[in-house]
TrEMBL record:
This is Peptidase M23. Gene3D superfamilies: 6.10.250.3150, Glucose Permease (Domain IIA). The lineage of its organism: Bacteria, Bacillati, Bacillota, Bacilli, Bacillales. Residues 1-26 form the signal peptide. Residues 259-305 are annotated as: Disordered. It comes from Geobacillus kaustophilus GBlys.
Length: 432
């Protein structure tokens, strides 16, 4: 925001607002027309800035609409992720149950296997008996060995029972083997399906999480753009306000020029020379106890405050930091700061970087200059106010981005701008 505030100042300073021509000089029609042209230019500029403000507001509303849509998308994705997570929990629980069933099946299979092995032993015994007795003939020998008809019937029943028992053993053996294979196949198939479902759900969850991350990044980007657009709009509104103040100041200058023009014409009619009612560039010179005003020099500019130069103009700290002015150290409890030349205050406010700061525009021989007085403890002049060379405008302080009590003073040949391209070394213009 600080840079945008400074941009607004740069626009105002670049308009070349200056003080009125010295009263001792004749006011020309050209001077009056020039001021009227400045007023028209300021009105046009204010209209352009208003259009930019309206455009910035439309951009803000569009960004807010996009954020609303993205917020809806994020809500839907969060719901989908929650549902997917629930499905994953259910499938995981089913897999755990299936694993438990598989463990149970392993016990049942072990029991079936044990029964199969026992039957195998019985069948092997039967086979050995048949081999030793000659196979099926043994059953005939049993029958022929009957001592009576009733004994024959008993023996026939016993043989039938044995044969049925052998067949039952074989049937149970086959049934157990089939049951074992069936259960193994069913559980294996179920476990494989559940694991496939789980993998698919986890993949879906990862995709949803990726989409959510993209939406969150988009939302952050939209919020950042909206914040930047708000800052831009605020800077434009500040610029518009500053232009309005500039316009009022120029109108005041125009009225003063017209008054001086009328006075000159009246003086000529009376046959005498017009003299300035304000007199020469007098300084107030009055300060509270504890400090004094610097003597007013005869050059174009005078020293803005008493004290040693603690930091000069140009690059410092190994060439990494450009200092666009000079710092004057504070060596008294109260140190007054004076206007370096006649001019008009076009900005007097508190800045996060400059602290209490005053910007004054000067016009000398058709050339515009701008002086800056920063880190003031107090400001005594307001915007649009005319000041005289050597007039007290504030007191040295330690406000804003300052590491100690001092005056940061800048001199610009032309208007002030954010890049400080018009900054010149005050030591080349002022006898310090």
């Amino acid at each position: 925001m600080k840079k945008k505030n400074m941009m607004a100042l740069a626009v105002a300073a670049a308009l070349g607002l200056g003080v009125l021509p010295p009263a001792a000089d004749a006011v020309s029609t050209r001077d009056i027309e020039q001021k009227r042209g400045e007023i028209d230019a300021l009105r046009s500029k204010r209209s352009e800035v208003q259009e930019k403000i309206s455009e910035a507001q439309k951009n803000i509303e569009a960004l807010q609409s996009q954020q609303k849509q993205v917020a809806n998308d994020i809500e839907k994705l969060n719901i989908a992720i929650e549902e997917t997570s629930g499905k994953i929990r259910n499938v995981s629980a089913d897999i755990d149950q299936t694993e438990q069933a598989i463990d149970q099946l392993k016990q049942e299979i072990a029991e079936i296997q044990e029964r199969i092995e026992k039957r195998n032993e019985i069948l092997k015994e039967r086979l050995r008996s048949l081999q030793e007795s000659g196979g099926a003939i043994s059953y005939l020998q049993v029958l022929l060995g009957a001592q009576s008809f009733s004994d024959f019937i008993d023996r026939m029943s016993a043989v039938t029972t044995i044969m049925e028992a052998d067949q039952q053993i074989i049937r149970e053996q086959e049934a157990d083997k089939a049951l074992k294979e069936k259960k193994e196949a069913e559980l294996t198939e179920k476990r494989n399906k559940l694991q496939a479902d789980l993998q698919e759900l986890k993949q879906l969850q990862a995709e949803l999480a990726g989409q959510l991350e993209q939406k969150n990044r988009l939302m952050a980007d939209l919020k950042q753009k909206e914040e930047e657009e708000h800052d831009h709009k605020m800077a434009l509104e500040e610029e518009k306000e500053l232009i309005a103040k500039q316009e009022a100041a120029v109108k005041e200058q125009l009225a003063e020029l017209e008054r001086q023009k009328r006075a000159e014409e009246e003086a000529k009619q009376r046959g005498r020379t017009y003299a300035s009612p304000n007199g020469g560039g007098a300084s107030s010179g009055e300060t509270p106890s504890g400090g004094s005003t610097p003597p007013v020099s005869s050059g174009a500019f005078t020293r803005p405050a008493n004290g040693p130069i603690t930091s000069g103009f140009g690059y410092r700290f190994g060439g990494t930091d450009f200092h666009p002015g000079v710092d004057i150290g504070k060596r008294a409890p109260v140190v007054p700061v004076v206007a370096a030349a006649d001019g008009i205050v076009f900005r007097s406010y508190y800045s996060s970087s400059y602290g209490n700061v005053i910007f004054i525009s000067h016009v000398m021989n058709g050339q515009t200059y701008t002086t800056v007085y920063a880190h003031l403890e107090a400001r005594l002049v307001g915007e649009g106010q005319h000041v005289r060379k050597g007039q007290i405008i504030g007191y040295m302080g330690n406000t804003g981005n300052s590491t100690g009590p001092h005056l940061h003073f800048e001199l610009h040949r032309g208007g002030w701008n954010e890049a400080k391209t018009n900054a010149v070394n005050p030591l080349d213009y002022i006898p310090f």
